Amino acid sequence: MSTLTLSQSKPVDRPQIKEKYDHFIGGKWVAPSSGEYFDNISPIDGKAFSKAARGNKADIEKALDAAHKAFATWSKTSAAERSRVLNKIADIIEENLEMLARVETIDNGKALRETRAADLPLCIDHFRYFAGVIRADESSISEHDETTVSIALHEPLGVVGQIIPWNFPLLMATWKIAPALAAGCCTVVKPAEQTPTSIMVLMELIADVLPPGVLNVVTGFGPEAGKPLATSDRVAKVAFTGETTTGRLIMQYASENLIPVTMELGGKSPNIFMKSVGDADDEFFDKAVEGAVMFALNQGEVCTCPSRILVHEDIYDKFMERVVARTKAIKMGHPLAEDTMMGAQASNDQFEKILSYLDIGKQEGAQVLCGGDKASLNSGLETGYYIQPTIFKGHNKMRIFQEEIFGPVTSVTTFKTTEEAIAIANDTMYGLGAGLWSRDAHELYQVPRAIQAGRVWVNCYHAYPAHAPFGGYKKSGFGRENHLMMLNHYRQTKNMLISYSKNKLGFF
Amino acid sequence: MSDKKYIPRVILSEAAIDTIDTLRKRFGTDLMFHQSGGCCDGSSPMCFEKGDFKVGGSDIWIGKVYGCDFFMNKDQFEYWKHTQLTLDITQGRGSSFSIEIPMGIRFIIRSRVFTMEELENLEPTMTGEEMMENNLL
């Protein structure tokens, strides 16, 4: 379909990664009860580069024992101490950024350019953000009358279970771990089976920073390790990022234990380009073009991938010509090469799934504007999982417009009026992210308000700073990460209702 | 339900049959499928021991494959109903609670657009709730 733009650089050196990693439980490295380990395959070349412990119910129970033991102390630790610990973790990640970025690239397949500039810096900032907010966080007091005072105090929920996805292994773990620890909870973390290594490399670095049992990591397969964690009556909450069926299953288990959950379940995010975007061929127009090409960030493996481009019909030709050209200029190559812009999909089953969507898109009559196939790379990458960045043109009822492909694939359609743009944007099961691009001050406020999504990027896309709440509407889940409001998803409210009156009520 | 004159909405490959046989033996129970949506391992079929995933009025039963009930969320089905699904197997380390994951393989859906003629003659669907009411689960 199109000639690929290829990186010509050599990959950087691989850091030392151990042959195998045990579970991290109670501050120690603990061999799996089964005695078994499983291969961790690098998407770069489809080859195993380390092994992870194959956790099961017994391992989860051990981790829960350690977490409950630690909770007695950690829950009473001062905010100053918890803040110090989170800041220390951030400092250690910062000191080891380059090494961790390389490990993350090997584990996940994404380009080093991104792990260096996005994944790891965001992890650092996120730990610092939660270290900061708990120092300024306050409970509330209200005086109901001159002798009655209500104190609403925060108390940590307890031991929580956190199930982490594979698309940003360290960052998504950070999004969950940082607020939980900040709130005074202890946690048992289950990383995704595709990416169980980078978090263990991080645990090696921070093992001594945390009191034993505050943070435990058990690797393994969903049905064997994830399920016992999600069904346990010894967790006070489960946090999950992933897909809808597993999300429902976890909620079903939570309903049996009557515990809260937070869910982040993906999306099919519209990226809307209003007519005024085309008013001039200037810096802003160029920024908007880049905004459309953001679908290729992280190989499209982002819950908020702008996988639907909605563009005003009057600017379609001018705008899409530039978007297609910019997409064709994406450099593919070895994910560890410094100039590679887009790396490998995270696993072979994802790779196959994306190809199945390229197939259904073509069958449904969508036009391939660029890409549309796997990318056959050489020099040792023949067995890796590479897909060409792809743009389809079609209509919003097609399956490629409705299903999360989780690959570097976007689908473009046009609209005539603002109302039509909003209607198309909202014609989806999901409501996680959206983008709105315009030079019109009224549209900049009104259109985002009309879009049913938890995050609307206005004249930008794919920024994830701590301090901006992130979470879904509709079937994209609930809970707001990246923000101090997440603290309350890990806390109870203890209300003390106090009478300072010496007089009896007079009832009895 | 499986009146022969109807065109099935979901069929399966030989590899999927083999995997279902293996899983049935291992778990000693019937199995079920629920098509997932959303991010990460979404847009993939999830395999569970029968009854492990609670279906209801928001789920559509779209057929039986090799004796296993296959469900999809109602909203999702609206966008999928013009396509025939083939349950297949691919190599690869997926995540999720789908029970084939430890085998290092993954159920996958391949799709085909129904012809206009086929669309007139598709197997009827019902909700999970209707199935329960009629003791079909």
Tell me the major beta sheet of chain A: 7 strands, mixed
- Strand tally of chain B is 8
On the 0-100 scale, what is the average pLDDT of chain B? 93
User: What is the domain total for the residues of chain B?
Assistant: 1
Q: Strand order of the main beta sheet of chain B, please?
A: 3-2-5-4-8
What would you call the structural class of chain A?
A: alpha/beta
Using only CA atoms, what is the Rg of chain A? 24 Å
Strand runs of chain A, count: 25
The number of helical elements of chain A comes to 14
CATH C-level of chain B: Mainly Beta
Query: Into which percentage range does the β-strand content of chain A fall?
Result: 15-25%
CATH topology of the largest domain in chain A: Aldehyde Dehydrogenase, Chain A, domain 1
Structural class of chain B: alpha/beta
Q: Mean pLDDT of chain A, nearest integer?
A: 97
Task: Explain what this protein looks like in three dimensions.
The complex is a heterodimer of chains A (508) and B (137). With 508 residues, chain A is an alpha/beta fold. Chain A folds into 2 domains: 54-239 and 249-260 and 489-494, 3-Layer(aba) Sandwich (Aldehyde Dehydrogenase, Chain A, domain 1); 270-458, 3-Layer(aba) Sandwich (Aldehyde Dehydrogenase, Chain A, domain 2), CATH 3.40.309.10. Chain A has helices spanning 57-74, 79-95, 97-108, 112-136, 169-183, 198-206, 222-231, 244-257, 283-293, 316-328, 348-363, 399-402, 418-426, 441-450, and strands spanning 5-6, 20-21, 23-25, 28-30, 37-42, 47-53, 140-145, 148-156, 159-163, 186-190, 215-217, 237-241, 261-264, 270-273, 308-312, 331-332, 367-370, 390-393, 409-415, 430-431, 433-437, 455-458, 473-474, 477-478, 491-499. In chain A, the strands form 7 sheets. A 7-stranded mixed sheet of chain A has the order 17-18-19-15-14-21-22, with helices on both faces. In chain A, strands 11-10-9-12-13-24 form a 6-stranded mixed sheet, with helices on both faces. A 3-stranded mixed sheet of chain A has the order 2-6-5, with helices on one face. In chain A, a hairpin with a 2-residue loop joins strand 7 (140-145) and strand 8 (148-156). The mean pLDDT of chain A is 97. Chain B has a 5-stranded mixed sheet with strand order 3-2-5-4-8. A 3-stranded mixed sheet of chain B has the order 1-6-7. Helices cover 23% and strands 34% of the residues of chain B. Chain B has 137 residues and is of the alpha/beta class. The mean pLDDT of chain B is 93. The interface between A and B is large, with 57 and 43 residues.
